[in-house]
Task: structure prediction
Amino acid sequence: MDLANFLIQLLNSVQYGLLLFMLAAGLTLIFGIMGVVNLAHGSFYMLGAYLGYALCAAWGSLTLAIAGGAALSVLFGLLLERLLFRHFYHRDHLDQVLLTFGLIYIFEEMRSILWGDDVHGVPVPAALEWSIPLTENLSYPAYRLFMSGVCLLLAAGLYLLISKTRLGMKIRAGAFNRDMTESLGINIQRIHAIVFAMGVGLAAVAGIVAAPVSSVYPNMGSQVLIMCFVVVVIGGIGSIRGALIAALLVGLVDTFGKVLLPQVASMLVYVLMALVLLWKPQGLFKQ
Amino acid sequence: MSTARAHLEVLPRSIQLVLWLGLLALLAFPWIGSDFHAQMVSRMMILAIFAMSLDLLQGVTGLVSLGHAAYFGLAGYLLAFMTPPGEPVSLWWTLPVAVLGAGLAAAVIGFFVVRTQGIYFIMVTMAFAQMVFYLFFDNKVLGGSDGIYINFKPDAVLFDLENKQVFYYFTLACLVGVYLFLRRLLWSPLGRTLNGIRINEHRMRAMGYSTFGYKLTAFTVAGALAGLAGYLWGAQTGYVNPELMGFHMSAHAIMMVILGGMGNFAGAMVGAFCFEYLLHLFKDLPTVGGFQMGKHWQLWMGSFIVLVVIWAPRGVLGLIQRFGGDSDA
Amino acid sequence: MHEILLSARHLTKRFGGLAAVNDVSLDLSRDEIHAVIGPNGAGKSTLTHLLSGDLPSTSGQIQLGAQDVTGWSADRISHHGLGRSFQKTNIFSPLSVWENIRLAAQSRSTPAPGNPLGWWLRADAHAGVNQRAERALNLARLSARRDTVAGLMSHGEQRQLEIAMCLATEPEVLLLDEPLAGMGVAEAERMVELLLALKQDHAMLLVEHDMDAVFTLADRLTVMVNGQVIASGTPAEIRADANVQAAYLGEEHA
Result:
């Protein structure tokens, strides 16, 4: 593999990894802080993508679609948390599995009713339709760099929020010791709602941003869900840093795997997970 | 409140009655119903075996596996590989091979998976099952996404499984056999140990139990029994594809067990029958005012599941017991 | 001198920069109750976790009888003759008292998990297990509550059950973490009686806050403050020790 190809695959790895991170960050936060296992997380990604497609078609601008989609999905997340998830924080994991699986079904149909079952393409915005030339024959699409950029920005924002703001401090306190935090007068319910809505928002925005590259299709949620779980398991539940490193690792293994060892490519990530579990049963950066 | 009744381990009278009536109904069914319906019930019985195998893991040991279908599907594929395209293969050695093969796969995967706890366990079982799924999906050699056909039912020599009624009763015999085996296991030292692990694993270790070995055993036995169900499924439908090992199949199994009531195997059977019946019901709904209710069956199924979780967490058996007029709950 | 059944040397447990247990050594001898006392956060419970194998030590050795058990897991140490009760009641709440104890007793003769015989025999038909369980049930004075659901009993009775479950595995060494916690006067008296009765044939470690009970029961005392041992000896020696008085006991017990 020559340098240009290597560079392309590296960039692809990072782009895929960062996208996974957006999803895994939400999942690991929701689990680490509220203790809820959420199988419907992939559905948020799928719903976000379809919503983004619809908004883009209606308003003609991907940027507006991202903004509108983010706002709507955060609202949706708040509603979902208030009506349903809030009552399941103290329930068995099994009940949560069941609940979120039922939701997967419901969300599938919601999408089917609202936007149909077809596969859709979303056009790359005109401003980003160019490519960066790497060699005579190879170039890298600017949109993919934009995608990575957006994910990085959101990742940085998340990091700043969690480690530098008072809200972030309250979130970390709540994750560490819920009862104590509550008795300190901090409104833990509001924190949970915010964290949940953030998770939903991140997943949905990931879906919209990824749409021009991966298209919008019914199964996209379940496909990404499993990768998400692998990332969270490798990184360690509750750890944002773990999610980032694990996501990049998974991105690298998956992308280079598909190029170098196509017959076993899809299994490589699981082998990676198995190895990590043998070494550290609770993930690399378990809190 | 009696202790064993807390988890419905000792089946109350009302439920015993339901089971006996159910057995009678199953015995009589091929004489009353059509061939088509008998096949449908055969399928339900096979799924009931699958659900009971999961109940051992989930209801008794407390391990929630989102990847149990991997062993179900694997056994079906083993039958497919063992059956030549032109003639049937003997039941008497292929069945043990499929069951042992599924058990072996469960033992290997279990070795990695059982060392994790709680939410990790759930995620990791799902991940490994997906790995198995992709192994078959991506490789033409193993049938790929198209799956494999099994052109002949296994040859039982003593009886003819190609005869639908014979196959039905053979499946019923397997169902009863698995139920009795598991009920016996429930009260054995292993069963009591697994029960203890579910309630308080930490204390079990403090008392000297090496819990890893027991959990792995439960995982393996459950996998082997799922394999039995998968073998029967492949034999009955004549077709296996990667979806049999997929996430949806695993999730269906979980729902069947919860729907019926966990920890006593009777609930798993009841749950399997109810779940399958509901699925058919929803899928056959008519079109009302231009809205294809049947096509959007997932909406009804999903809502039903959510309602069950919120209002009937102890499942159908819990409801029967409550309304069955048993002295003390 | 009684036979030493458990011996800990220079046990240290660090969590990050904090040493919860710092260079602690002690011996447990047969027919002796060795009490460990100290203010909250002194590291007494952590020490118990180290001795029982629930937590791995950062450094130090533990010897059970003739065997070095440093680094052994909790279940392995249990099989080697150690039993412990927990500070926070740690029983099987949905099960009956009898089943709780029987399950504990079963641990000693249960077939290996892969042994199909262990999937077939009836668990409650094993004579040896039942005998051991019966004995523990009687020793802990719980015979009358045999069929009661454990979770429905009073706090004091549950603490008794904790002890019974320990005894069912027939250990030589007993680690008891605050057995009297949360008990009323009458219940506490009964427990003290029980513990005195158990002293014979066992080496006992007792972590307790109830000073009256401690001085009634203990043959030896170790005082811990901030993870370290500040004094160790007979109750009379400890009562007279100036450091101990300053750090912990106060004037009333001088």
User: Anything to note?
Assistant: Residues 14-284+298-320 of chain B form one domain. Residues 211-237 of chain B form the longest helix (27 residues).
